[in-house]
Fold this sequence. Notes:
Layout: H1 11-33, H2 114-130, H3 137-148, H4 156-165, H5 176-182, H6 190-198, E1 203-207, E2 210-213, H7 218-228, E3 237-241, H8 253-266, H9 307-310, H10 319-322, E4 344-345, E5 348-349, H11 352-355, H12 369-372, E6 386-388, E7 398-399, H13 403-407, H14 410-413, E8 427-434, H15 449-456, H16 459-466, H17 485-488, H18 492-499, E9 500-506, H19 537-540, E10 543-549, H20 558-563, E11 567-571, E12 589-590, H21 598-606, H22 616-633, H23 636-653, H24 665-668
Parallel strand pairs: 3-6, 6-7, 8-9, 8-10, 10-11, 11-12
Antiparallel strand pairs: 1-2, 1-3, 4-5
Helix pairs in contact: 4-23, 16-18
Amino acid sequence: MRSPAFPPRRPSHLVRYIFPALLLLGLFYYLSDRPQDPQVPNTYLTSGHDSSKSSSSSPSHDQGPPDVVNQPAKNPTPNQKPVHGGADGSNEPSHDSKPAPVQPLPPKPAAVHPIDELVKIADKDFKDLLAKESKTLAEAAQAYRKRRGRHPPPGFDKWYEFAKENNALLVEDFFDQIYHDLNPFWGLDPVSIRNEAMGYEMVISVRNGNASAESDWFWTQIWLDMIQTIEHLLPDMDIALNAMDEPRLVVPWEDINAYMKKEKQSRILSPTKSIVKEFQKLPPPAKQDTKSLHTVDKDWEDTNPYWLIARRGCPPDSPARKQPVLTSFDSKPSFSPSWATPHQYQGYVSNSTLSSEFCHQPDLQGLEGIFIKPLTTSATKVLFPMFGGSKLATNNEILLPAPMYWNEEERFTGGDDHGPSWDSKIGPVIWRGVATGGRNNESNWKGFQRHRFVSMNNGTKLTRAEEGIEPPVNFELPGATYNLAAQKEKRLGPWVSQWSDVGFTDLFCDPDVEPKQEDGHCIYTDEHYETVPGQKLAVQFYYKYLPDIDGNSFSGRYLGFLRSTSLPVKSTLWREWHDSRLVAWKHFVPMDNRFGDYYGIMEYFLGYEDSVPGHDDVAEKIAMDGKAWAEKVLRKEDMQIYVLRLLLEYARISDDRRENMGWVDDLLS
């Protein structure tokens, strides 16, 4: 019998509370089940309006066509993943009055590896790049105006005709490096540009369609040979050349900033009726004994460490400018992988252009031979038109294809043998090289990049480091980010020894050491390294993976690696003419300059015993895609097309009437 103190509730009371509760519960499940889009980075660097500037780029502008001075892709917030619903796939709450029986949890799906995502995005970026191809002269001119903000230079129609005769694939983005290099010169007076070029010590001169040079330096002669193949299409000009391995121009960021403001102001699409279509004629080249009369004093510097010179091209608020300068390199170098975060996605390079910049990476001053002690140092703050084959992000040279690329020496290209099919290769990883990178000596070699890489492939050193017997003197064991299976089992050394064939052919000892060293030995590094026999590139192409590590400057083997049936694993600080044409994770594998991601990259491709699956098929696809692409856009014909376009632009910038010069025939027809 019910107590009268607790009268029965009417159904309306229950409805009043149950319905809001069910509504709130349903809303909670709906919101909690909404997936979050995983954020992954771009691997190809485009220059859209929404791209942020890199730390060492020229200043940004708030309007007009996009600037193409090394704009990095935006970086994501790593680790964001979709949130899924219940195990049965239902997103609705259960209203059963009885509790459901306890079910065993299903196995979690394998996590997507960061490299899988980077490869996927690279494929999409590459397709987007191909969609920009210009197939007619009018389309090429339209793409030029849209991206550059001015009319194409005089001779643009002849350039296009030459490109098409040589079966070139034309995408305006391919030529971004030209404008990165030349745009600051819109801030200089044309007379000064011409005088500085004509008065330099090593020059190729073009007059009346004929190219010539007084210097017999072998690089000059190779570049002359290249330019002579297009001389009939060139206006008069003088081309000053850098004959050193190392670049020589580092103009302060503040000066480049001012020049770029002037360049921005000069971007106009002049009325077609006022366009000047012909280049000016120049007087005969200067005689050697009168050259100095035409130039300003360069005040060449030999400051060491070179970091002090290189960093002045960085923005004033950049870490490179604000962090303390290292004065000693005698102990184990300091590794600060957090500086790499802006160009990485979950520990792997997601922005290869930004990775090659150092303004946001001050720890690289103690990890790269070029910053510690180059072979030679001769630098200036003066901006003048010097051409060279490679440069760092803050250098101001104008890039040409490197001489060894045009000359196609077998030691750099491998000759006609580009390697067997992927399945016929005999081993995983091979690297051979000299212990270059700069002038190593007893007190600084621990900071040199090639020494670090070879040490990281020494299984004995890895084992002793893992067991705490002998701490590494010039590298670090991989961090927890990479979750390496071999490292968990303390078998990193034996694992690396299974697949790595890496070694120095010459320890490139300090020439001032006594007694003089012979046969590639070095008294202060012999205890750490044994020299090994060299291998021709044609032999190296029988291996699947080809790490490419900077030497004194860029690696002259890179083009050969790209053309091979093997997979280049590229680490570099150096810029080259072809950078705008290559897509990381589509045509090559990028690697951070600290090499902290090296083991993670190799575990992804090779796997580890039965616990970690490999991705041999992914490696083969990148290798084959890179080879096919290099054979399509990195031919000698593509070098000619690039240089012709570059020199037409250079001639216009050097002309007194440059603001009104252009090609506009497509607008008149």
